[in-house]
């Protein structure tokens, strides 16, 4: 990831997921942002394999 662009973005998580992320952030003594960024970097290649909504067959 290039540069130091630090745009602010609001993300919304289900309460139980947010509690898990907060717990992990506390365990690692890291910020929520750091945990989410690391999780994205680890998971992005798997997520890219998911079909796009435009790739799904029509139900007609």
Account of the 3D structure:
50% of the residues lie in helices and 0% in strands. It has 60 residues and is an all-alpha fold. α1 (15-28) packs across α2 (32-47).
Q: Averaging pLDDT over every residue, what do you get?
A: 90
Shape from CA axes? Answer: extended
Order of helices and strands: HH
The total of beta strands comes to 0
- What fraction strand? under 5%
Which structural class do the helices and strands define? Answer: mainly alpha
Main beta-sheet annotation: none
Poorly predicted runs are: none
Keywords for this entry:
single chain; 60 residues; 50% helix
TL;DR?
The protein is mostly helical.
What order do the helices and strands come in, and which of them pair?
Blueprint: H1 15-28, H2 32-47
């Amino acid at each position: 990831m290039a540069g130091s662009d630090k745009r602010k973005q609001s993300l919304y998580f289900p309460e139980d997921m947010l509690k898990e992320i907060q717990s992990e952030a506390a365990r690692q003594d890291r910020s929520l942002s750091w945990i989410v960024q690391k999780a994205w970097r680890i998971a992005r290649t798997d997520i890219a394999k998911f079909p796009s909504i435009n790739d799904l067959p029509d139900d007609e």
